[in-house]
Amino acid sequence: MKTKKYTEAEARPNPHGVDARNIYDGEHAIVTHILLQPGEQLKKHITPVDAIFYVLEGTGIVEVGDEQLEVTKCQCLNKVDHFYFLINFIYI
Question: Which of 33, 42, 64, 92 lies deepest, with the highest CB count within 10 Å?
Answer without folding.
Answer: 42
